[in-house]
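Researcher: Next entry in the queue.
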Amino acid sequence: MSNFEQKLTEMLRPAVEMTGMELLGIEYISAGNHSVLRLYIDHENGVNVDNCADVSRQVSAVLDVEDPISTEYNLEVSSPGVDRPLFEKAHYLDVVGETVDVKLGMPLNGRRKFKGILEAVEGDNLIVEVDGESYELPVANVAKANLIAKF
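Model: Structure for this entry, 151 residues:
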């Protein structure tokens, strides 16, 4: 998560929690007038369209006052879905033993994409087994990570 996304998370988390929902994380995709600010929310009873609308209203009010994004953007509020995004160390700890898809910001041994079993979280590193080989991936270098759904 970028520093900007971390600042947005800290700014918006209270507004999301006021609705009774949990803010899993934020993605900001900068694309000029087509930029997107996407919030992922969750609740132990699941997330429905009304929950997303409530969070959108609360968050919009904060964004209007604080105005952290100077360009045009679309606000999207979403449930985590089946390919649950992983943002924080606690999210990784919850899915140890599961298959994850990790994309690094900076290559490790010439590689940025790792899809395999999350074996462990040790300190600030993820241990991911890909094709029989274990890789130690710094959480700080993770650009994007998702849980791969089992069917």
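Model: The helical segments are 3-18, 49-66, 89-94.
Researcher: Noted, moving on.
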